[in-house]
Design brief:
Elements lengths: L2 H24 L5 H20 L9 H12 L2
Helix pairs in contact: 1-2
Organism: Sulfitobacter alexandrii
Keywords: Membrane, Transmembrane, Transmembrane helix
Protein name: 50S ribosomal protein L35
């Protein structure tokens, strides 16, 4: 898997799990599914960071998003 794609998917999955975490905490229940999605997103981000030798700069992340969307959208 392309590290750029893994980074984008990981960030999107982790970001989408935040409302689920807040919902579970506001209902006083354990955020089990949310914790799993955070782990999956974090694992994808870690995979991307370890497989790209020079790593990612924080200012480079928006360019990575645009490049991935341009590459995989027809």
């Amino acid at each position: 898997m392309d590290p750029d794609l893994a980074l984008v998917i990981g960030i999107v999955i982790a970001a989408l799990s935040i409302p689920s975490i807040l919902s579970a905490l506001s209902d006083s229940r354990a955020p089990r599914a949310s914790a799993l999605t955070v782990l999956i997103g974090g694992g994808l981000i870690l995979y991307a960071l370890t497989n790209k030798p020079q790593g990612y700069a924080l200012g480079e992340v928006p360019d990575v998003f645009v490049n991935v969307v341009a590459r995989y959208m027809p």
